Structure to design on (150 residues):
């Protein structure tokens, strides 16, 4: 499998990319962290209520002190699987992952009060939308730094 396939497996479930890279200890650690944070933050219930339009229920259920760890673990698992599979050949290739984690975490902080067209987005939808500026700025910075520094 190529680095993008390992990345895709880590997007599906953090730790799977590491297992495919034969980095078993890291894979098990990422899987453990994903399950721990998922259960403690009540993330599956948040997803359920968000998909059913019960945004206030999802917000009230959210265990923020646990869910705040999720973006960093999630994007770190993706970066690590991609890197170990040989996908880090370009300089600054970590930037889209790092900035996505930062933007999603910031989005989570403000998620209980952000509205789009008068609709409250909540602790699942708004942080997910924050991936877009994080990824975009990370890719832009990568290009700029490659041109400036090499």
């Amino acid at each position: 499998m190529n680095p993008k396939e390992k990345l895709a497996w880590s997007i599906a479930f953090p730790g799977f990319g590491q297992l495919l890279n034969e980095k078993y200890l890291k894979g098990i650690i990422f899987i453990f962290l994903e399950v721990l944070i998922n259960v403690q933050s009540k993330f599956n219930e948040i997803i359920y209520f968000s998909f059913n339009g019960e945004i206030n229920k999802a917000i009230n259920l959210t265990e923020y002190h646990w869910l705040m760890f999720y973006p960093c673990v999630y994007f770190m698992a993706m970066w690590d699987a991609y890197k170990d599979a040989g996908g880090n050949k370009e300089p600054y290739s970590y930037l889209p992952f790092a900035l996505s984690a930062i933007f999603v975490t910031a989005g989570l902080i403000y998620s209980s009060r952000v509205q789009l067209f008068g609709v409250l987005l909540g602790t699942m939808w708004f942080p997910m939308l924050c991936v877009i500026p994080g990824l975009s700025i990370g890719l832009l910075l990568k290009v700029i730094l490659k041109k400036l520094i090499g």
